[in-house]
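FAQ: What does the model actually see?

It sees only this:
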Amino acid sequence: MNQTLYWAAAVLVMAVVTYIPRVLPLSLMRKKVKSQFLQSFLYYMPYAVLGAMTFPAILYATATPWSAVAGFAAALLLSFAGLNLLPVALVSTGTVFLVEWLMRLW
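And it is asked to produce this:
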């Protein structure tokens, strides 16, 4: 099997696999969902998935886990304080750089 055909097949399989979970709920649920539990489950699912995908990346994106935890803590505190995304991202990034710089001096 040549390389182009292999990559085309791989992309096609990935497209089908990611398309099925998106189409299945639409085709299975014809009526409005009346269950309060299911409504809240479907409402919070994107946030849970985003958090599950983002949190491990936070821990492994820096040189040390300590700087990652410091940046995460700064972002968490500022977001709970009600700041917008840009200041939270800038301060948490600055915190990571500061902690890594201080750890290099130590």
